[in-house]
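A quick aside before the break. I want you to see a complete sequence-to-structure record at least once, exactly as it would be stored in a machine-readable document. Don't worry about memorizing anything.
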Amino acid sequence: MEYSKAEGPFWHLYVPEIECSTQAEGLGETDTMARDLIGIMTGQAPDAFDLTFTPFPAGDRPS
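That is the input. The structure line, written in C-alpha coordinates, reads:
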Protein backbone atom coordinates (compact mmCIF):
# COMPACT_ATOMS: atom_id res chain seq x y z
CA MET A 1 0.00 0.00 0.00
CA GLU A 2 1.36 3.38 -0.96
CA TYR A 3 -0.02 6.71 0.13
CA SER A 4 0.38 10.42 -0.39
CA LYS A 5 -1.27 13.61 0.84
CA ALA A 6 -3.62 14.70 -1.93
CA GLU A 7 -5.34 18.00 -2.57
CA GLY A 8 -7.47 19.21 0.31
CA PRO A 9 -8.18 16.95 3.27
CA PHE A 10 -7.79 13.66 1.40
CA TRP A 11 -5.04 11.06 1.32
CA HIS A 12 -4.45 9.13 -1.91
CA LEU A 13 -3.99 5.37 -1.38
CA TYR A 14 -2.64 3.09 -4.09
CA VAL A 15 -2.46 -0.72 -3.91
CA PRO A 16 0.07 -1.85 -6.53
CA GLU A 17 -0.77 -5.53 -6.14
CA ILE A 18 -4.28 -4.93 -7.49
CA GLU A 19 -3.49 -1.73 -9.44
CA CYS A 20 -6.30 0.21 -7.74
CA SER A 21 -6.59 3.47 -5.83
CA THR A 22 -8.90 4.94 -3.24
CA GLN A 23 -8.80 7.91 -0.91
CA ALA A 24 -9.22 8.51 2.79
CA GLU A 25 -10.40 11.62 4.58
CA GLY A 26 -7.53 11.64 7.09
CA LEU A 27 -4.85 9.21 8.22
CA GLY A 28 -7.21 7.58 10.70
CA GLU A 29 -9.34 6.32 7.82
CA THR A 30 -6.52 4.89 5.65
CA ASP A 31 -6.56 1.37 7.10
CA THR A 32 -10.34 0.98 6.76
CA MET A 33 -10.45 2.36 3.22
CA ALA A 34 -7.53 0.20 2.08
CA ARG A 35 -9.05 -2.94 3.59
CA ASP A 36 -12.43 -2.20 2.01
CA LEU A 37 -10.84 -1.69 -1.41
CA ILE A 38 -8.75 -4.85 -1.23
CA GLY A 39 -11.69 -6.87 0.08
CA ILE A 40 -14.00 -5.70 -2.69
CA MET A 41 -11.45 -6.26 -5.45
CA THR A 42 -10.17 -9.67 -4.25
CA GLY A 43 -13.06 -11.20 -2.33
CA GLN A 44 -10.92 -11.55 0.82
CA ALA A 45 -12.22 -10.68 4.26
CA PRO A 46 -10.94 -7.24 5.35
CA ASP A 47 -9.09 -8.79 8.30
CA ALA A 48 -7.51 -11.65 6.28
CA PHE A 49 -4.32 -9.79 5.34
CA ASP A 50 -1.67 -7.45 6.70
CA LEU A 51 -1.06 -3.95 5.36
CA THR A 52 2.19 -2.02 5.05
CA PHE A 53 1.97 1.66 4.15
CA THR A 54 4.76 3.31 2.13
CA PRO A 55 4.74 7.05 1.36
CA PHE A 56 5.22 8.42 -2.15
CA PRO A 57 5.66 12.07 -3.19
CA ALA A 58 2.49 14.15 -3.42
CA GLY A 59 1.29 14.43 -6.99
CA ASP A 60 3.21 11.33 -8.13
CA ARG A 61 0.87 8.49 -8.88
CA PRO A 62 2.67 5.14 -8.74
CA SER A 63 2.71 3.15 -11.97
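Two observations worth writing down. Helices lie at 30-42. Strands lie at 2-5, 11-15, 20-24, 54-55. We'll return to this after the break.
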